[in-house]
Specification:
The complex is a heterodimer of chains A (about 150) and B (about 750).
Chain A (H helix, E strand, L loop, with lengths): L1 E5 L2 E5 L7 H8 L18 E4 L2 E4 L5 H4 L4 E2 L8 H12 L9 H14 L5 H8 L9 H13 L3
Antiparallel strand pairs in A: 1-2, 3-4, 3-5
Helix pairs in contact in A: 3-4, 3-6, 4-5
Chain B lengths: L1 H22 L6 H5 L2 E2 L10 E2 L5 H9 L5 E5 L2 E4 L4 E5 L8 H13 L6 E5 L4 H4 L9 H28 L6 E4 L2 E4 L4 E4 H8 L30 H6 L14 E6 L7 E5 L1 H5 L4 E7 L11 E6 L2 H10 L2 E4 L8 H11 L9 E3 L2 H7 L2 E9 L11 E7 L2 E6 L4 H12 L6 E5 L13 H10 L6 E4 L2 H6 L7 E9 L5 E12 L13 H6 L4 E10 L12 H19 L3 H9 L17 H15 L9 E10 L2 E11 L4 E12 L6 H21 L4 E2 L2 E2 L20 E4 L15 H15 L14 E2 L2
Parallel strand pairs in B: 5-6, 10-20, 18-19, 22-23, 26-29, 26-30
Antiparallel strand pairs in B: 1-2, 3-4, 4-5, 7-8, 8-9, 10-13, 11-14, 12-13, 15-23, 16-21, 17-18, 17-20, 21-22, 24-25, 25-26, 27-28
Helix pairs in contact in B: 4-6, 6-7, 13-14, 17-21, 18-19, 20-21
The chains are: A alpha+beta (about 150), B alpha+beta (about 750).
């Protein structure tokens, strides 16, 4: 039995300690916004924030989460940078199929949290782990810049 | 052996039929031929319209809304008394933006207020909706007339209701933003307030409806945000993988890593004892790749438990019918036989031998490209629930309507016992034209008490795809004394599943055949037998063949010492009657090709002097009814690192429905094409796929993505055609031609990373 804080809410989950956070969120907490894409931290679709850091939830076991707070795509809009990024995503019409976008938004929000005015190389570094099979990178980059340009 | 061959061939025939269908010129939509029908059983709440046959669900819905709060105008449109208009999108949303575009088309003819339109996914009912697939960039051209008639028909009924109420001439009533107005009397009313009466009006004859001209569009052609975007960016459930049902259990399905293998036995007791596992059993399936192959299902209480148990699975595979294909062997063999032109030519126009003998110059070259996986980011999945004698399913598929018979067969039930719900699809690229995973889920559901979600792993997805086939082209071309393209000989080496014709997606496309207008032309084909299933991969055939054809075209113009753009324009405008499309409905137009080439050359700054190490390449294609030219400007350093300076794409796909979405498709397809040309390759060894995850299959990432891709559209009055595919094929050829311009080195083999090239950050 584990106590997990997700998006400010505390949950008790009865799962094996080796279960990755991704599947706890999806199958046990019904938070399906965080996506399964590769299972080996190659695609970034499962990115969430753990203790404020962007983390591939397919690689972090529930046993290793500890007391750190988890924020997912369902909750990121409650934080100013998350809301800003989501709005920028809508304004730039970033999504195509949309499947990778939760992970892209989580990585982009973490980038703005650490680097409020990212340049292209900051964006490259922060977003390199998030695959988009549809090729929305141009709009992802633009949306991050647009969000950064908005007042906090 | 005959039986095995027949199984492979049958499966391949299904896929080939799909590809032919999605390649086919749009057929007249159902509504155009049959007109509107009144539905039987429409209750007192109002008249319900269908387009072909009655649909009880719609009638029942109006009955249920006894207070008349919501009126179903037809299978596409519902109008609520609060003036909210719900529009049903009949085709799958796979990222091509169809749910937005379909709404825009209907809303424009309906003169609806877009801000109060809600888009919903229609369930699968081909009897009501006609074609409900998403493939071959055909959703728009197939639905164009049908959707406009749906909007115009509903509007005519609203106007008729107002005219009756106000006792005025309906021709004097104008519609705008979901409000009808009669200027002379000053009367006006919202659609919502008129809906109940409108539903009782006579159904207009589809043929009598006056549709808008381009100048009258209020919505079509503008830019729109994707209708599902707010849900996407907040992580709301949308995709097949997101489906949750009460009491749901989770399944994996493990098939033989070498295509065609069968289960002899597996460690069933050990698997059943794994933590979280509920059941494990083998299925024989239908034996067809495109349906359900033999395998082992593991049912568990969550996805991770199913995945963990799958890792412990030990299956004794019967490999007697399994693939032993090897891609390295195909490559070697193809190279060996390339120079031996087949005795029998598929096409033979003029006299190539005479032309070669008389030629001012001749050129020979050999091109090669590999197998490729689709690898959409949402791994295959389906949720299925066998209850009350039916199987209810939630399927992320591109081809729900065509999938129905296969799914029913796999479930062992008649088609009318299968209820399919469409979900948003996390990437199609042609992969989900095949419903194999849905067939598996249907078969599994029959053995499970309650709803079950079949979830493939990423490794399952790579190992059991319907791959873009490799291909090998040996060319010889001739330039005449005037520097013109005079002869083209091509030995195309490809694959066959049935030993008779090319495997699905492995034929030289008609698009290519229309496009190379050499007065002397000879083509022949050699086919290697193949057991690995192939299929439709974004712009099937064109996606790699255009690379070979248009790069060789550049070799010809270079050897001729001609300006490439001039050479291309001259060639495409040659009159070679044998190469003109036989089917008059094919919209291939040398004029439209010329226009996109000229505009692309202009926008890309064709003819300007490039600094050393830099180059500009241009290529064109006719693909999926779109006329396209693409240009790539790049530089290459001493370590073969390519810096993409600029990509220009010019398309003529008729009028644009959603400019924002069309720009996205042009940019996305170009990016996908760059990604694929640079790095993507599937190797097969002894029937087994070597690349099983993204670490071995380097889809382009942010640091290497172009900073801009400039897309331009030539908007004509021709009927609109699709945007999902046309911006893919010419990019790799433009890239190859640009590398030659920059370095003098010809790239004749994909992916370019195999030749030492990489993209610079």
């Amino acid at each position: 039995m584990f106590t997990l804080t997700v998006n400010g809410q505390s949950h008790l989950v009865d799962v094996p300690e080796q279960m990755p956070l991704l599947w706890v969120l999806r199958d046990h907490l019904n938070l399906v916004g965080t996506k399964y894409g590769c299972g080996v931290a190659q695609c970034g679709a499962c990115t969430v924030h753990v203790g404020g850091n962007p983390t591939r939830s397919c690689q972090l076991t529930i046993g290793d989460v500890g007391t750190r707070a988890v924020v997912t795509i369902e909750g990121i809009g409650d934080a100013p940078n998350g809301a800003k990024i989501q709005k920028a995503w809508l304004e730039a019409s970033v999504p195509q199929c949309g499947y990778c976008q939760a992970g892209q938004i989580m990585s982009a929000t973490a980038l703005l949290n650490s680097t409020p005015q990212p340049d292209d190389s900051d964006i490259d570094a922060a977003m390199a782990g998030n695959l988009c099979r549809c090729g929305t990178y141009i709009r992802v980059r633009q949306a991050i810049k647009n969000a950064a340009a908005k007042p906090a | 052996m005959a039986n095995i061959q027949s199984n492979f061939a049958q499966s391949d025939a299904y896929l080939s039929a799909l590809i032919r269908e999605v390649h086919a010129t749009p057929v007249a939509p159902v509504i155009g031929r049959r007109g509107f029908f009144k539905l039987a059983g429409a209750g007192a709440a109002g008249l319900v319209l269908g387009f072909q046959l009655g649909d009880a669900a719609f009638a029942a819905e109006n009955d249920a809304a006894a207070d008349g709060a919501i009126q179903t105008m037809n299978a596409f449109i519902r109008v609520a008394s609060n003036n909210t208009i719900t529009i049903y999108s009949k085709c799958p949303e796979i990222g091509q933006g169809i749910k937005t575009s379909f709404g825009v088309i209907i809303a424009d003819e309906l003169d609806a207020d877009w801000n109060h339109v809600v888009m919903e996914q229609a369930d699968i009912n081909p009897k009501v909706y006609g074609s409900q697939g998403a493939g071959g960039s055909t959703s728009i051209p197939r639905a164009w007339d049908q959707l406009r008639q749906a909007g115009a028909g509903a509007k005519a009924m609203l106007i008729a209701a107002a005219a009756k109420q106000w006792e005025v001439d309906p021709r004097q009533i104008t519609a705008r933003d979901s409000v009808l107005t009669h200027a002379a009397s000053g009367k006006s009313a919202t659609y919502g307030s008129l809906a109940a009466e409108a539903a009782k009006m006579p159904v207009p004859d589809a043929k009598g409806l006056k549709l808008k001209t381009r100048a009258e569009y209020r919505l079509i052609g503008k830019g729109f945000h994707g209708v599902d975007d707010p849900k996407v960016v907040t992580g709301q459930p949308l995709f097949g993988i997101d489906v949750q049902r009460p009491g749901m259990v989770y399944a994996t399905y493990t098939k033989c890593p070498a295509a065609g293998g069968k289960v002899r036995s597996f460690n069933v007791d050990e698997i059943k004892a794994e933590r979280g596992v509920i059941d494990a059993f083998a299925l024989t399936g239908t034996g067809l790749m495109a349906e359900a192959m033999p395998g082992v299902a593991i049912i568990a209480k969550d996805t991770w438990s199913a995945f963990q148990a799958q890792k412990k699975l030990k299956v004794d595979w019967d490999l007697s019918e399994a693939s032993q294909d090897s891609t390295s062997r195909f490559s070697e063999e193809a190279k060996k036989i390339a120079m031996s032109f087949p005795q029998k030519a598929d096409e033979n126009i003029g006299d190539v031998d005479k032309a070669f003998a008389a030629a001012a110059k001749t050129v020979e070259a050999y091109y090669e490209y590999p197998f490729a996986a689709h690898a959409p980011l949402e791994p295959m999945n389906t949720t299925a629930h066998w209850h009350d004698g039916i199987v209810e399913m939630w399927v992320p598929t591109q081809q729900p309507d065509r999938g129905l018979p296969s799914i029913a067969k796999a479930a062992g039930l008649p088609e009318d016992k299968i209820v399919l719900h469409q979900t948003r699809v996390g990437g199609g690229f042609g992969r989900r034209l095949v419903n194999d995973y849905a067939c598996e889920a249907a078969a599994i559901s029959r053995k499970v008490d309650g709803p079950v979600k079949l979830q493939w792993t990423r490794e399952d997805d790579f190992a059991h795809d319907f791959y873009r086939p490799a291909g090998y082209h040996q060319f010889k071309g001739a330039i005449d004394g005037n520097g013109r393209l005079d002869a083209w000989r091509e030995h195309f080496i490809t694959f066959t599943a049935d030993g008779k014709k090319e495997a699905s997606g492995a034929n030289l496309t008609d698009n290519i055949k229309f496009s190379i207008k050499a007065p002397n032309l000879r083509r022949g084909t050699t086919m290697f037998p193949l057991r690995i299933p192939t299929g439709a991969w974004r712009a099937p055939g064109d996606n790699a063949q255009v690379f070979a054809e248009q790069c060789f075209m550049h070799e010809m113009s270079s050897v001729a010492g001609r300006d490439h753009v001039e050479f291309l324009l001259e060639a495409v405008n040659r009159d070679v009657p044998e190469l003109a499309p036989k089917d008059k409905s094919v919209n291939f137009s040398p004029k439209r090709v010329s226009d996109v080439i000229k505009m692309c050359a202009d926008k890309a700054g064709w003819g300007k002097t490039a600094p050393k190490g830099s180059g500009l390449g241009l290529a064109w294609c006719y693909s999926h009814a779109g006329h396209v030219a693409q240009a790539v400007e790049l530089s290459v350093d001493a370590n073969k690192r390519i810096k993409i300076e600029r990509i220009v794409v010019v398309l003529d796909v008729g009028p644009i429905i959603d400019m924002t979405g069309s720009q996205a498709q042009a940019q996305g397809a170009s990016t996908d094409a760059l990604s694929t040309a640079m790095g993507l390759k599937i190797n097969i060894e002894n029937g087994r796929i070597k690349e099983l995850n993204y670490n071995a299959y380097p889809v382009l990432r942010m640091p290497f993505a172009p900073m801009t891709i400039d897309a331009y559209f030539i908007q004509s009055d021709n009927p609109p055609t699709g945007m999902g595919e046309p911006a893919f094929p010419a990019l790799a050829a433009a890239l190859g031609n640009a590398i030659f311009a920059a370095t003098g080195e010809r790239v004749r083999r994909l992916p370019l990373r195999d030749l030492g090239y990489s993209l610079a950050i």
